[in-house]
């Protein structure tokens, strides 16, 4: 029975990985080929393109190691503390930390663009500098939490279909969790939650010059709120489920499944709502898969 559950869950998770990878590659290719990132007045495509690239790297790591490890029911290396698992864990958590910082950037971008449209904070040049700063910050955090902290580090765990902390002998205080993981995850969700609530209230009360602009701004809020929700659910289940001491290991797979959705939700939203991306995808696939109203051709839903 256990092996059947493992195979079914493993197959589902691996299929999910490939679907999210395809969607991310499709949207990133659309952004690059259409040169949407080159728009001087729309730095959000620079943020989105970099974010999707990071998510592609995360998914590839899962396809190469975590997916096969779940199906095989083994570490594929010499245990949880082996060099191979450590390398995979460092890459995974580094990309997660970077994704957390990108969530903050998206929320700040929406707040500035909608509430303070005259601000030049998110010019293309400044966005590049901010992204480089985020990369350095993520690198510093992952080096501390995974390599320098005396205890403990997060690793992929095929036996719970998710991730778990590797606890070192004779260490009782999880410094990585208390000083990096929980503060970053909860702080990111808190900041993004407050930002999106403020945005929604601002758009609803203040309104815009015309109904079309107001609708577009509300749609933008909804797009990034969905990203924020999947991110928050992923880290909450990681910390809450072990505290509940669930006996069924398959229950912990929710964390991995939601994390993979979080990796692809940006692309899903763009393909569902963004006219420029939908039009570029049709051209790339040489088929009219996504309906694009002629009156809105070439117009972006994100400003």
Features:
72% helix, mainly alpha, two-stranded antiparallel sheet, 303 residues, Rhopdopsin 7-helix transmembrane proteins, disordered C terminus
Could you walk me through the main structural features you see in this protein, from its secondary elements to its overall organization?
One of its GO terms (cellular component) is membrane. Residues 23-270 form the G-protein coupled receptors family 1 profile domain. InterPro entries: 7TM_GPCR_serpentine_rcpt_Srx (IPR019430), GPCR_Rhodpsn_7TM (IPR017452). Keywords: Membrane, Transmembrane, Transmembrane helix. There is one protein chain. The protein contains eight helices and two strands, in the order H-H-H-H-E-E-H-H-H-H. The chain is mainly alpha-helical and 303 residues long. The chain has a single domain (2-152, 173-296), classed as Rhopdopsin 7-helix transmembrane proteins, CATH 1.20.1070.10. A two-stranded antiparallel sheet has the order 1-2. The chain is globular.
């Amino acid at each position: 029975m256990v092996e059947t559950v493992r195979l079914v869950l493993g197959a589902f998770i691996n299929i999910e990985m490939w679907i999210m990878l395809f969607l991310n590659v499709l949207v990133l290719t659309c952004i690059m080929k259409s040169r949407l990132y080159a728009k001087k007045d729309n730095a959000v495509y620079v943020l989105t393109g970099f974010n999707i690239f990071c998510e592609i790297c995360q998914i590839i790591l899962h396809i190469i190691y975590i997916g096969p490890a779940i199906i095989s029911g083994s570490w594929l290396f010499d245990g949880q503390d082996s060099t191979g698992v450590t390398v995979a864990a460092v890459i995974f958590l580094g990309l997660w930390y970077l994704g957390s910082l990108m969530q903050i950037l998206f929320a700040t971008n929406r707040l500035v663009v909608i509430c303070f449209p005259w601000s030049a904070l998110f010019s293309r040049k400044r966005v590049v500098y901010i992204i480089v700063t985020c990369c350095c910050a993520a690198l510093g955090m992952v080096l501390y939490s995974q390599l320098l902290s005396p205890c403990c580090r997060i690793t992929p765990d095929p036996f719970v279909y998710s991730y778990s902390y590797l606890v070192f002998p004779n260490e009782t205080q999880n410094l990585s969790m208390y000083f990096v993981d929980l503060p970053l995850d909860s702080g990111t969700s808190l900041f993004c939650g407050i930002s999106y609530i403020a945005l929604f209230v601002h758009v609803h009360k203040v309104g815009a010059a015309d109904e079309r602009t107001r609708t577009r701004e509300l749609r933008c809020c909804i797009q990034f709120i969905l990203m924020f929700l999947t991110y928050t659910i992923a880290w909450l289940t990681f910390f809450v489920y072990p505290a509940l001491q669930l006996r069924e290991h398959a229950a912990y797979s929710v964390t991995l499944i939601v994390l993979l959705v979080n990796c692809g939700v940006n692309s899903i939203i763009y393909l569902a709502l963004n006219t420029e991306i939908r039009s570029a995808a049709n051209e790339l696939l040489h088929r009219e898969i996504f309906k694009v109203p002629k009156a809105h051709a070439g117009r972006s839903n994100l400003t």
